[in-house]
Please model this.
Amino acid sequence: MIGATARRLWATALKLGALGIGVWAASAEARITRIAITSIQSPTFDGLSFGSAGQYERLAGRVFGEVDPEDPLNAVITDIKLAPRNPRGMVEYSSNILIVRPVNRDKGNHRLLFEINNRGNILTFGLLNDARQNSNDPRSAADAGNGFMMRQGYTLAWSGWDAVSGMVPGVGGGPFVLDVPVARNPDGSDIVGPSLEEFVIDDDTTSMGRLSYPAARLDTSEAKLTMRAGVDDEPVSLSGQDWRLSADGTAISLLPEGRKFASGKLYELVYPATKPKVAGLGFAAVRDLASFLRNAKADEAGNANPLAGDLQYVYTACVSQPCRFMRDFVALGFNEDADAPKDEGGRRLPRRAIDGVLNWVGGASGIYLNYRFAQPFRTHRQHIARWYPEFEFPFAYQTATDAVTGRTDGRLRLCSMTDTCPKIIEANSDNEYWAKDGALAHITPQGEDLADPRGVRTYLVAGRPHGDGIPASGEGICRQKRNPLTGNPAMRALLVALDRWVSSGTAPPPDRLPRHHDGTLVPPAQGEVGFPAIPGIIYNGRMHTGDLFDFGSQAPAGILATLPPKRIGSPYPAVVPKTDADGNTLAGVRLPEIAVPVATYTGWNLRKRPAEEGCDAAGMYIPFVRTKAERLQTGDPRLSLEERYPDHAAYVRAVAAAADELGRQGFLLEEDALRYVRAAEESDVGK
Model:
């Protein structure tokens, strides 16, 4: 009923606005105040032309914004009322901005693809354009990859939302960092509170651990440093004589000087930190820039919006960490445009900031952002970062009741009340199930399948590791060779599907997921999963368990009081996709590598050190042997290539048939289907 009322109000506003009467301009609750374009390269990408969209140009500069801390849409930001204010009573932020647009804007598709960057870095050229490497300064022909986003006619944009990751050495490094103020006590003094640092040591050279926030005091007796091998091991405390804080309080070192951290270990430091950033401003920064680029003619100083009058729709795309940001962005109500017009009664009319969201490998989690002493670069895996507030109810978009905590919630609840939900496509790899308990995105906390939510599509792209679109190679820190597959072909098709859904109402394919009711979503024991006993491969079913933590139940929202948190059990179901006899995932979108396999491709791997622990984001690549004789000699239960494909032509026909079917279903574009067939023709399978 509320959504219907909101729709009527907005329809009325559009009519009145068209007549030039009755709609008040938006007040300054949140807005972009200045955009400064400092460099233009036209054309860019070495002058390449991209189909009907033609050449592109590159605009770089800086963007400045402010929010009203008293506005209910901003009040949810942790510590917003403890941030310094400008003379207008506003809280300010700023960031670098990069825009890549068609030189002739009439040739574009009038859609903005706003990448929510990963720790300050651009990743969509790898994911959607198959670029061999991502660049934070894309301007060469090589940076453009296969040109897919440009050939589609998209205008592209990047700006900052993450105020922390880029500031921690070795964590971020990208240029798209949000500058935000530091919160202070009402009397102006520094805030001091507990913070948790985890140092994951995977080498034999590390001798210093950097802190996300400076220590308030250098006395090691006021802090606690522990070490453990695996996440379930009891931590061992290090004496305050065994380590020290640096003179500026931004790092720790082991003693005696030069002593290295032990490889394969997890070190956890709880210490009194200071100078917390108002990191939750990142949500407002994304909302307000999307609104400005679509709706504004110019900033307050009269500087033109470089996309004024061009954009019909705004979509976001992301890889991993920023997709968890987008899940919280929607859940916290930030897709309601704070700069929307108001009616004659002063009520803000509902308007979406973003129309469509394309998430790749965001899992079922949120992000450690809207907290005091936030650390948004942290990401849960089976082995790492398990003590941070990322894995928390609500997991799903659908509203459900959590029998464990007694809460009833869902990630679409708030935006549904104002009819400001975007269309959402979520695509995940197998790794999200193994490393992050991602099944909770589509099952209840009791383990039952949820009905598909309105306005959301969720897919498992089968047999994939967690990745940024650039294939992994070798073993790295893992026991076995890493899975080199990417989700790129499916994500291109899903971007096209998202656009059709938003712009013309053409619904994407139904959800394609492992399900409890059909037996394709199962506990991780080998007998349940059906994973074969492959010589040389250890299977231990190691996965992210459904833990519940107490971070300090009496503390205000966004402030953690109990660190490290108390684990009060593992009440949530921990389940993974079932496999076929080859060890390849049965459910989900089975691209040709899985539908017509030449290997086993998993979403899990194990570490070299410590043994038996999950290898973070990696999967495994275990090729089939070529002949039956070799298979029998090694004891491999999986059919050999010669037993599967009697000749080369048979293999090519099977790939072509699988690609054609995926195209009909909407999971593969014609250009990618042809790439699969060409690759099969050029292979030596069956020869």
Observations:
- Residues 192-274 form one domain.
- The first helix runs from residue 2 to 19.
